Amino acid sequence: MSGTHDEKARILELRRLLDRANDAYYIENDPIMSDEEFDRLLKELQELEARHPELDDPNSPTRRVGGRPIEGFRTVEHRVPMLSIDNTYNEHDLCEWYERVLRLLGEDGEGLFARDTIDFCADPKIDGVAVSLRYEKGELVLASTRGDGRRGDDITHNVRTIRTVPLHLHSDTPPNVLEVRGEAFIPNDEFIKLNEQRAARGLELFMNPRNACAGTLKSLDPRVAARRHLGFLAHGYGEMDEGFAGGHMEFIARCRSLGIPASEHLTRCTNIDEILRAVHEFDRIRHTLPYATDGMVVRVDSFDAQRRLGTTSKAPRWIIAYKYPAEQKRTKLLAVDHQVGKTGRITPRAVMEPVLLSGTIVRHATLHNYGQIVKKDIRIGDTIEVTKAGEIIPYVLGVVFELRPKNARRIRPPDRCPVCAGPIEIDPPEAVDHPELETARLCINPECPAQVREKLIWFAGRGQMDIEGLGERTIDQIRATALDPDDALRIELGVPPEVPTIPLEHFADIFTLHRYRDALLMLDRMGEKKVDNLLQGIEAAKGRGMARVLAGMGIRHVGSATARQLARLFPDIDALLAAPLWMLMPKAVNQMSREKRRELTGSEDPIPDPPETGLGALTAPIVYAYLHSKPAQDTFRRLKKVGVSLASRDFRPHTSRDSKDSLPLAGKTVVVTGAIEGYDREEIREALERLGAHASTSVSRKTDILIVGENPGSKLAKARELGVEIWDRQRLKQETGL
Ligand SMILES: [Zn+2]
């Protein structure tokens, strides 16, 4: 009994201690214990809390590292609306706003707001996400997004992980209610790291820190936010006790004394000259800050004056955001490299002489596409102008032609994929002759490492290899084992740090997953049954045959219908690869001129009874080139090596009489009526044709055999009438093995 009592006391003690240590470290920058000690005490607290669920406290320091994921977002109403702020991009507008404020306040009959008594403050405008924190009796009870200004989403689970946000206010006599509005943000180094990780995985990059932060706060799993080390700075108020503060400077000072962080660059100004000076001075230093800013927010300090100025239909009159113009710089283009995205798109990237642009040293900038390079006539050696979109992603505006050196070199787009050396395709096709029209250049190698995720998903999917249990999430989870143990995406996908790397880069890797059964079992939501079903599904897929493999490879112009048609013509991949180009497009060959036909096939005569392949004179050469490329050869070789059958299950010889005569149904005209277990209508027809039969749909005197399945139709009676041989399911199996 007393043990339990001690444990409860210990829980409360640890919570107090860890809260103090957290705030000392993150808010006061004055640590009171080592990281190791902190981790040890936190672990002790986690264990004790697990034994005492009755002592659950949503503001326990253990929630800082992320609690359980939530099911979905709850909408909450803002008691005081979170209004948006008017923006201005030039100093003239800022001066006009200033004069308007003075005029409106000067119209006050009682002369409370004399021109020289009005204080303003200027505060950094952080490129983050507006968040409202609500404290009741000193406890954080709610954190919400701005939403539409009247209603937002409850994101308390994620905001608790922001180490600088106090879970309890630092006061013995805290206000009853205090709502603090501020900006949650992702620090620059975290933003860059996050995008690097995403780029390495072929995922879409976040455009700017604001998007990254918004994405993080909208995660259901607080461990994601905990790993991204978000920050928060207060800049406004919602509901609060009467008399808490009389103006903005006082409000921020009181928030600070309660442990809530605010910007140290908040500046009091008494006139427009001081406002402009604050704006200019901040512009000089803002790029040295660890987070992104894009302007300054200027407001009237006094809450009385704010109330008097009021709000227009859109925004408050007492506050305005001044945004800095995007910086442009000149530098020299040294080279162009070529990057491949997840869809195979190849994007040219400028390699430049390093230049300081909006606070960071920039060496690379996007050139968007090869058509742009031609249109803007950009050459290596040129002096180019660069800027940053959204203050983060640099791009090339154009060339300073007066400064073009004599030896400036034209940029040659790659004619092979720079990652895998696979063949490429140009979009739109006219751009081959008119390069200025080019909007995209694509690597069409399905196993290109740059696009491997999408390709794996397609390969394993229904209609292709149809591997039960190998969906998008499982593929992502397995591939995440190659990431750093503390990678946010890895955590998001539920891959514990102790799981070793499970290779999944090539189609063939799927068929070696059975060697990693133990590792697969360690993944989130991968129980014994699920893993074994997955491995069985993979084993079964080895025998799906050539048509499914070809369709699964995602070769351009080879869908499942074309894949099946090719598999009817060729008994296996080797036969397909040995075939000359014209055999991939026999119908098109017959439409060619005699000379062209002789050139291609060696004979002027049309091909008798040409089979349909689904490929024509334009598409067949592309498919042929791909099948004979090194990447395709590698794929076939690797698949064979891991035991995947590349033999056709659809092969229907129609040239070789000999082999056909030896088949069990050779030369027989066969009709099926009713359902045959294990086959659909088309499948049974194909299966019979593989056995040499001519499958027909109606019973006549020419019919040799009628196969009767479940619920036969009128054909049975007719067959009896004509004396046709009748097979039931049993007989079919005996005779043919079907
Ligand atoms: Zn490639």
Please, could you describe this protein's structure?
There is one protein chain. The protein is an alpha+beta fold. The protein folds into six domains: 2-65, Helix Hairpins (Orthogonal Bundle); 86-323, DNA ligase/mRNA capping enzyme (D-amino Acid Aminotransferase, Chain A, domain 1), CATH 3.30.470.30; 328-421 and 429-443, Nucleic acid-binding proteins (OB fold (Dihydrolipoamide Acetyltransferase, E2P), Beta Barrel), CATH 2.40.50; 449-541, 5' to 3' exonuclease, C-terminal subdomain (DNA polymerase, domain 1, Orthogonal Bundle); 546-641, 5' to 3' exonuclease, C-terminal subdomain (DNA polymerase, domain 1, Orthogonal Bundle), CATH 1.10.150.20; 657-736, BRCT domain (Rossmann fold, 3-Layer(aba) Sandwich), CATH 3.40.50.10190. It is built from 28 helices and 24 strands. The strands form seven sheets. A five-stranded mixed β-sheet has the order 2-11-10-3-9. Strands 14-13-12-16-17 form a five-stranded antiparallel β-sheet, with no helix packed on it. Strand 16 (383-389) and strand 17 (393-399) form a beta hairpin. Helix 1 (2-26) runs antiparallel to helix 2 (35-51) and helix 18 (546-552) packs antiparallel against helix 19. The termini are far apart. Zinc ion is lined by residues 340, 417, 419-420, 422, 443, 445, 448, 450.
Summarize the structure.
The chain has 738 residues and is α+β, with helices and mostly antiparallel strands.
